[in-house]
Amino acid sequence: MGKSSSQLSSRRRLELKDNFANTKRMEAEEGGETALQPRLPLSKVVSDCTKRWFQDTLKEARTGDVNMQVLVAQMYYSGYGVPTDANKCKIWTTMASRVRSSVWKVSNKRPGYNASDSDSDELGGDS
């Protein structure tokens, strides 16, 4: 017969080990995550995410999306993803209030506070 099963197992283990080493080397060349690269602290990752969220929201707010204008105002008010700026908060709140006057009630709330929930106060007075 051929080779014993222990020889095949040893040979297979060597092949797997070589494949793993080649994969890690290729990942390192392509900039993939390897044990050689330092890991980022979670606070850095979260900070980068909030900054990107702010940039994406600002882009949408500039197109005229009222909900995003309210969110930008809230982010400026609380300093979420951007340095705190009361003047810019007021500017974005004023812009959004041209369409929905109730935004003044939520301009000082945390980012993501549902502005439409506060619209129900206005609707009650209109009927």
Rg for CA atoms:
27 Å
Distance between the termini: 93 Å
Can you tell me the number of structural domains?
A: 2
Helix content: 55-70%
The geometry reads as rod-shaped
Instruction: Indicate the mean pLDDT.
Output: 75
Structural class: mainly alpha
Q: How many runs of DSSP E, i.e. beta strands?
A: 0
Strand content: under 5%
* Total DSSP helices: 6
Multimeric state of these chains?
Answer: single chain
Low-confidence spans = 117-127
Q: What composes the largest sheet?
A: none
Order of helices and strands: HHHHHH
Please give a structural write-up.
- With 127 residues, the chain is an all-alpha fold.
- The chain folds into two domains: 1-33; 42-112, no CATH class.
- The protein is built from six helices and no strands.
- It has helices at residues 5-30, 42-62, 66-78, 86-97, 103-106, 115-126.
- α3 runs antiparallel to α4.
- The longest helix is centred in the first third of the chain and has 26 residues, at 5-30.
- It is rod-shaped.
- The model is unreliable at 117-127 (pLDDT under 50).
List the helices and strands and how they pair.
Blueprint (H helix, E strand, L loop, with lengths): L4 H26 L11 H21 L3 H13 L7 H12 L5 H4 L8 H12 L1
Helix pairs in contact: 2-3, 3-4
What's this, in brief?
This protein has about 130 residues and is mainly alpha-helical. It contains six helices and no strands.
